[in-house]
Amino acid sequence: LEKGRLRPQKLVVTTVFTDLEGFTTVAENMEPNTVLDWLNTYMERMVKIINNHGGMVDDYHGDMIKADFGVFRLGQTEENKRQDVNNAVSCAVALEQEMRCLNTQWQQQGLPEVRMRIGIQTGPVVVGSLGSEQRLKFTTIGDSVNIASRLESFQKDSLETWSKDEVCRILIGETTKQYLGEHPWGLKEVGVITLRGKANGISVYRLFTKTAAPEQRSAMTPREQARG
Fold this sequence. Notes:
Distance between the termini: 52 Å
Largest sheet: 8 strands, mixed
Strand content: 25-35%
Structural class: alpha+beta
Number of strands: 8
């Protein structure tokens, strides 16, 4: 600690953002106590899964959750980074499964069902304390954090084209894909995002779990298939 603040570090961290589609519209039609009970149930279930997968919840903003994987390691190796990525992606898959369970529960209670977006990116970040003496928080700052947030909201206006049985969309960035290695899920390249001031775009991949339709699940991206 330095003057009550954690000493800043630069680490390779996998950042996860989650958000509920259309939450604001849904919440407007509910009583205040119902909104908070409904949202707190969601948060409790999701945070438990994040913790169980080795993540740390960094921030909440309405229905948004930001989680970090890899911030507590004393030393970092390539194997550590791969493990953090696998933990983060496995966590996202578990969050999707839990979202299905919650929707079933809410349907039985007469509450609205919702869908979730998840964005995941891996990269170097600054880790440390941020804020004033009155209110400090432990957080991460860096391009990969911004990219993870952009992945979560990527083309969100097109989500109305989802099929009815889809409750979650998981998007990962190029660096996360590289660290992921062998995995049981399908990946499909779905676009490119650009950051202001950056010359090169970042490829966006959608991850499909075993519950996705077979035609949607492909272990190879279109570029990889073209290379044969």
